[in-house]
Design brief:
2 domains, two-stranded antiparallel sheet, 10 strands, about 0% helix, elongated, EGF-like_Ca-bd_dom, EGF
């Protein structure tokens, strides 16, 4: 078997998996920018919204940062994978970018 992976045939966001007589390109974990294999522990660097923790790229919980990310009144922060979103608190709804009581 020839190791086709030695020639790095895959794209930047993929890693190469050598197989008998061939190879396949697999997509890197969402937490990675470039990788050497499967999983968040094989990242070359962590994607935006992720930080290296115990050799793995883990999601940053922007809602638990000391500095508030959702600044508008009656608005709550919801953490998402690699990011966050600001939503109106319970009992409030979005009216032209402002959270007003329902």
């Amino acid at each position: 078997d020839l190791d086709e992976c030695a020639a790095s045939p895959c794209k930047d966001h993929q890693y190469c998996l050598n197989t008998d007589g061939s190879f396949s390109c697999k997509v890197c974990d969402a937490s990675c920018v470039g990788c050497t294999g499967e999983g968040s522990d094989k990242c070359k660097t962590c994607a935006s919204g992720y930080t290296k923790e115990d050799e793995k790229c883990t999601d940053i919980d922007e809602c638990n940062l000391p500095e508030k990310v959702c600044m508008k009144e009656n608005q709550d922060c919801v953490n998402t994978s690699g990011s966050y979103k600001c939503v109106c608190s319970e009992g409030f709804e979005d009216k032209d970018g402002t959270c007003v009581q329902t």
